[in-house]
Amino acid sequence: MLILKKFALGPIINMMEKREVHIADQIKSAESNRKEAEKYLAEQREAIQDARREAKEIVENTKKFSEQQAEEILATARKEAERLKETAVAEINQEKEQAISALREQVSTLSILVASKVIERELDEKEQEKLIQETLREVGEEL
Predict the structure, then answer these.
(1) Which end of the chain is more exposed for a tag (fewer CB within 10 A), N or C?
(2) Distance between CA atoms of 69 and 77, rounded to whole angstroms?
(3) Is the pLDDT at 10 greater than 90, yes or no?
(4) Residue 138 domain-assigned?
């Protein structure tokens, strides 16, 4: 029994103890790897959440920027429309003044024409006054 213990059981027990230590080390290593994998997974989940937050912020910032640009474009368009309106009003007023000026020239021409007719006819004072009043009424209706 002693010889069996020394030569057979001893080396088997040593081998089993070494095997037990080796298995325990592998279990510890696997546990350590599992914890490291869980830690890495948690970090990856957090990174994904951060990326989602950043993407959401980028989308919101882009939306705000586009709305601001749209408002600026509208404001510019309104200013341009107002400027065009003012230019058109100024042109209308200028053309109106030109038309009034032309009308005054026509009135003076008509006055000269009436005066020449009066001189040609050599009317008495009453008829001259009547002719002037009629001409003025006609000119006034045209204005």
Answers:
(1) N
(2) 12
(3) no
(4) no
Cβ(98)–Cβ(81) below 8 Å: no
The model's pLDDT over 80-97, given as tens digits with 9 standing for 90+, comes to 999 999 999 999 999 998
Q: Which residues contact 121 (CB under 8 A, 6 or more apart)?
A: 127
How many domains in the chain?
1
Position 135 in a domain: no
Residue-level length of the chain: 143
Mean pLDDT along residues 117-122: 62
Does 130 fall in a domain?
no
In eight-state DSSP terms, residue 9 is: I
CA distances 66 to 1, 33, 55, 133, Å, are 93, 48, 16, 69
Q: Residue 31: give the domain boundaries.
A: 2-102
- Residue 118: the pLDDT is 60
Assigned domain for 119 exists: no
- The predicted pLDDT at position 61 comes to 96
Closest CA to 143 of 115, 88, 111, 102: 102
Closest CA to 72 of 64, 84, 60: 64
Give the residue-averaged pLDDT of 110-138: 70
Return the DSSP state at 138: H
